[in-house]
Amino acid sequence: MTANATRPEPHAAAQAPRGEQRLRFAVVGPSGRMGQQVCALVGAASDLTLACRVGVEGEPAAQTLLAVDAAIDRGDLAPLDVLVDFSHRSAVAGHAEFCARRGVAWVLGTTGLEAADQAAVDAAAARTLVFQAANFSIGVALLLDLAARAARVLGVDADVEIVESHHHHKVDAPSGTALAIARAVAGARGQALDEVVRHGRQGLVGARSRGEIGMHALRLGDIVGHHELHFGWPAEGLVLTHDARDRAVFAVGAVRAARFAASQRRAGAVGRVGMAELLAGA
């Protein structure tokens, strides 16, 4: 289900209209790399309030979600507009229940979700607005759009390979962004990704299957994020590439997404949206 999204602001730093009540943010994992950057951006914005920091394991100074819930019940904390979440898949079910019950918009950037985790996300989207994205970069959102367009034109006779590179601390592979690219290609070609994806190759694998989508993951040093989408067909080839050179682009996009989700939720919207809805009409 997708919420009916209004036209988004044309740039990431857009402020709310003069006189509108500040949007109240809760940030999960405020000591993490993304959490710190999101907190800094919220703190610097005149239309936003950092209402609370929600702790994850190893962050004793931050409140637990249970403590936040109790504080709202007591009236010690005003209701939240949006929860910005880049934590771990093990926390997804609890955060889904909280946002659904409280009607809080949920910006979810956690990747590596399993089927049960995604089911919890979808259940929450039936009761509140969930903004879910594997990557909050505007450039990646444009790449997904271009990937689908190219796939529709070239069809299943074009060979497709996706190569992603990230820092050596990344725990999941392939990246959520690489999977999103693969889904964009498969969807545009009328394929079920699970039926055509091939993760790496080794040994005598035989000739490449028609319609196959190859996936390859590299883990090197401190690479923030690099994705390549290769199309190949007789006598021609096309490569679409995106580089993230600074992690700040993801925080900027996440705050923009949170503004969008919170404003939509205030208008009564429910459902699951993503970067395509945010950038629609931009």
Major beta sheet, specifics? 6 strands, parallel
The tally of domains stands at: 2
Cα radius of gyration in angstroms: 20 Å
Strand neighbour order, sheet with most strands = 2-1-3-4-5-11
- Please report the distance between the alpha carbons of the first and last residues: 22 Å
Q: Helices and strands, in N-to-C order?
A: EHEHEHEHEHEHHEEEEHEH
Q: Give the overall shape, derived from the CA principal axes.
A: elongated
**Beta-strand percent range:** 15-25%
- Average pLDDT works out at 90
* Name of the CATH homologous superfamily of the largest domain: NAD(P)-binding Rossmann-like Domain
CATH class membership of the largest domain: Alpha Beta
CATH topology of the largest domain: Rossmann fold
CATH architectural grouping of the largest domain: 3-Layer(aba) Sandwich
How would the blueprint of this fold be written?
Blueprint: E1 23-28, H1 33-44, E2 48-54, H2 65-74, E3 82-85, H3 92-102, E4 105-108, H4 115-125, E5 129-132, H5 138-154, E6 159-166, H6 176-188, H7 193-196, E7 197-199, E8 213-219, E9 225-233, E10 236-244, H8 248-266, E11 271-273, H9 275-279
Parallel strand pairs: 1-2, 1-3, 3-4, 4-5, 5-11, 6-8, 7-8
Antiparallel strand pairs: 6-9, 9-10
Helix pairs in contact: 1-8, 3-4, 5-6
